[in-house]
Amino acid sequence: MKVSLQWLNQYADLAGISAEQIASALPMVGLEVEAVSTAGLGPLEHVVVGEILSFEKHPKADRLSVCQVATGDPEPRQIVCGAKNFKAGDRVPVALPGAVLPGGFEIKVSKLRDVDSHGMMCSARELGISDEHEGLLLLTARNLPVGSPINAHFPPSDTVFEISVTANRSDVLGHIGVARDLAAYFRRAPRVPALAPLDAGRHDIAGSPLVSVEVSSEACPYYTVRAIRNVKVGPSPDWLRRDLEAVGLRSVNNVVDATNWVMLETGQPLHAFDAARIGGATLRVRPAAAGEKIKLLDGREIVLEATDTVIADVAKPLVIAGIMGGEDCGVGDATVDIVLESAWFSPVAVRKTSRRVAVSTDSSQRFTRDTDPALVEYAAARAVEIILATAGGVASGPPIVHGAPPRGPVSIEISGAYVRERLGHDFGDEEIFGVFERLGFSVKDPSGAGDSRIVTVPTGRPDVTRPIDLVEEFIRIHGAENIPLAPISSPTLPATDAPVTLFVRKATALLAGRGFAECWHYTLADPVRIARLHGQEFADSLALANPLASDQGCLRPSLLPGLLDALKLNLAVHAVPRRFFEIGHVFRPGRDGALRELLSVAFIMLADPVSQSWKKRDSADFYAAKKLLLDISAAAGLVPQRLVFSTPQTSAPLWQEGHCGTGRDRSGQAELACGLVDAAVAREWGIKGAVVAGEVLFAAENFAAIPKRPRFQDWSPYPPVSRDVAIVVDAGLPAATVLDKVRGAAVKAAGKDFSVEDVFCFDVYAGKGLPEGSKSLAFALTFRAEDRTLTDDIVNKAFQQILKTLENLPGFQVRK
Prior knowledge:
Blueprint: E1 2-4, H1 5-8, H2 19-28, E2 32-39, E3 47-58, E4 61-70, E5 77-81, E6 91-95, E7 100-101, E8 105-106, E9 110-112, E10 115-117, E11 120-121, E12 158-164, H3 175-186, E13 203-204, E14 212-215, E15 222-229, H4 238-246, H5 254-266, E16 271-274, E17 282-287, E18 293-295, E19 301-303, E20 309-312, E21 317-320, E22 324-325, E23 338-344, H6 347-357, H7 362-367, H8 375-391, E24 394-403, E25 410-415, H9 416-423, H10 429-438, E26 442-444, E27 452-457, H11 467-478, H12 499-513, E28 517-518, E29 524-525, H13 527-534, H14 536-541, E30 554-555, H15 560-572, E31 579-589, E32 595-606, H16 622-635, E33 643-645, E34 655-665, E35 670-677, H17 679-684, E36 691-698, E37 721-730, H18 735-750, E38 755-765, E39 774-784, H19 792-807, E40 813-815
Parallel strand pairs: 13-24, 14-17, 28-31
Antiparallel strand pairs: 1-12, 2-12, 3-4, 3-6, 4-5, 6-11, 7-8, 9-10, 15-23, 15-24, 16-23, 17-20, 18-19, 20-21, 21-22, 25-27, 26-27, 29-30, 31-32, 32-36, 33-34, 34-35, 35-36, 37-39, 37-40, 38-39
Helix pairs in contact: 4-5, 5-8, 9-11, 10-11, 12-16, 18-19
């Protein structure tokens, strides 16, 4: 929104305050300044009033004229000009040699097609007054002295501030509101224009051009109209046109300009109808009929819906309420009688329609921010004053009012002690309540004791409803920069990072050290993609009730789809990173139907490196992914012995059958999956080649306790002793399950006498000599004592106990 400094001075005494000081003050009162510019004619040297004495066609250019121009010198100046909108006797601005026009353009004596030109006659744009450049700026005022400085005949230039207004500050969407804040900040007197009573000759109490006004829309609880007869529509006076152009509005005519001017003054939008174009002399504020059409002033045709509100006559809609008028009711040169609308429309209804039809106007921007209902009648009466002064006419009939303001002032009880306690500084009561009064709030002391006051907030500030809101208003105007600096003393206690933070730090360092680049993605995902990878029922359990976008309608159950996106993007642009990881929260439905929030660590990489290298690297596979998952789990305090991997799963479309596996922690605190991404899924993402990925999900319980600090454990100086055992089991039984049973038997046999240092599978055999559907798994067991060398007798005794335990397990056969 643009505000004019000259305009602001009409509503607040800002004399002696520079534009720079105001530009610094506006952000302090909550109005961010986006730009500061100059409007109007700035100081220009060597630019004077000239009179065109005569002109003739340029001998070598059809589009140029050679003019003789009087500029106050003894002899006329010859100036070559390309404009066509002048005649002999016109007075125009002339830039003499040596003048520097806006933009740094310096005027010099020059030749144009071999004809000397001693200056330049100027358009409005060349002087920086407006964007008009179709011809010369004709000085229509009479008796302007030829040769006099052009600045002597124009008002001083204006400073224009372009400010950003937050959604809760509808009170500053007009110059009066901005001036009120500045007056309060600088401790100056505000000046709100008073409404003058209408002269008897300018007010006809009878004879309104309207027969009736009907309101049937819930989106309009307060609607008023006034009528003016016998207006003379024409150009606006200079002051009115200048004010509008300073803030970026184009002058239309004196009636439309008056409504726009009052809107920019007060923040209350208005609309003027041509009374002769209102069918049946009736205005109806009603919901639109589904499929009804209206052609707006800008030429667009809009198909309306039943949720939209329109202002209509007996036959057709004339205006989309609060947004824009139609071309069938606008004020034009032939208009004689006008009907002036001023209303309060529901911000929700206007915002919904404005977004749906993709039309945003100065009116809709104000209505959607909840305009002040107290301004409805004031702004209308103010506009009547301006129209009568600029277009003539007679105010006809009393105002027609439907409904009432939707809200009234709000009274808040607050004490000075409350403000001091919240801000931590000793402000005086007079200072505190003086700020509220300068903002236009009324302050009363009902008890007379002065302990607390009743502050009544006007209807223009719907954002101030609580005592804490008043505290914010006080410090906004008083200025946080005016609170003296003071040291803050606070005892600090040593603290330990949360376990989950320590783990994230370790996991990040681990994966980054392996050459993975970190990614961050949104926690919302595409429901179609989730259904493809996890099933429709799974996607439905994670669906949002009111998603903002169709591709962000689900909570994400996995980080891997986002990592696939990252890999696809980097491959497409031939970027260096080909390995990615992410650590974040995902969501899964629990067995009881409730959602569980889990911490996920996921990674993805191409199986075969695509970059050229002097040494061929081994391809990544399931086992490489499993090793990474085990290392990540170890960083979370889960030792491999607690993790159980199962056979490859074929039910999950994400993974390639026969090249993947899943795992879990015995206590249910972690879930793991890794392997090759299904080739069909990789093709859907546009990724060529094999992709290896892995993901581990941790429940919050895994990080409930602070991990114990690891302590040094001395190693045994005595040699280990090894034994081998081969077990014949069913071919479908996972090796991890068998290894777990072997380790358990070994630990039980060793007891506390010595330790089982390692158990690992070193051979898998299936074929000749074994029953069909079975396999042989060979394990190496390593034992060691901390205080002595183990003898064969001790180890053999324990080993026999291990064999006996394994032979007693169903489906296990010790191979001899």
